[in-house]
Amino acid sequence: MKLLTVFFLALLMIGSAVSAVAAEPCRTRYIDFSLKSTAWTHVPLSKLKRDTIYTLAQTDGRSVVRGEADGSASFFVSRFQSAMEAPKSISWQWMTQALVPGADNRDKNREDASLRVIVAFDGDHATLPDIEKKRFNRAKRLSGLNLPYALLMYIWSDHVPVNTVIPSAHTNQVKMLVAATGIQGLGQWQTVKRDLVDDYRRAFGADPGPVLGVAIMTDTDNTHSRATGEYSEILMECSGNGAK
User: What is the per-residue pLDDT across 94-134, written as a single tens digit (0 to 9) for each?
Assistant: First the structure.
């Protein structure tokens, strides 16, 4: 996945400009994956790329979404109707049978992953460096909409240590954070709970602004390989007890 295009994912995630001033108070938010859910939308990455196939299903009594990538990349997105004050924690369940062979998110030419959970944040665009302001302004001219201030992307890596922050090669406003690593746990559902506020501070060196939406992504467009990722039970909580 090329993070230059991921930067524009943020625009697609929110669908319209959302002001941080209008953010609603933090509240527990469970993001439903049920077959009847209308919370999720498939978002293509590019007309020049194949889409990852996302399928809602019931597996072992749980509601899941399965992403199947075959040299492809696209997103499954949940937009919030209004921005929400950043919750203390985010948790989810995910599973994959195998990591993407040859992938390394530290290398912009091998940026693929079986599993990604992405959170979009608002913020004060006036504080951005000039080069970032130019990117934001260019996107707004093209679309008439504002990009979110920042994206925090949780990934499962094959060998990079947990808690490592991997910066985007294209913008300071996208950071990847390794939430799991290695082959241990492959083929089994894994529960991840993260301190979202602390993770944002680790990645961006500041307190987070309001949350605008979340997304998941399984992608293999750089390695031209195949991967399947499954996701379930994304939960945001204000207290964050037990977050790592």
Answer: 999 999 999 999 998 899 999 999 999 988 878 888 888 88
Position 55: which residue type?
Answer: T
Buried b (16+ CB within 10 A) or exposed e, 13-36: bbbeebebeebeebeebebebeee
Count the residues in the chain. Answer: 244
d(C-alpha 226, C-alpha 224), whole Å: 7
Location of structure tokens 């001219």: 141
Q: Which token pair is 183?
A: 């082959």
Two tokens, residue 127: 């504080």
Kindly tell me if the per-residue pLDDT of 41 is higher than 70: yes
| 48-85 residues labelled b (16+ CB within 10 A) or e (exposed) | ebbbbebebeeeeeebbbbbbbebbbbbbbbbbeebbe
CB 193 within 8 A of CB 91: yes
- CA dist 2 → 6, 73, 81, 239 (Å): 7, 9, 28, 34
Q: pTM for this one? A: 0.89
The Cα–Cα gap between 72 and 49 comes to: 6
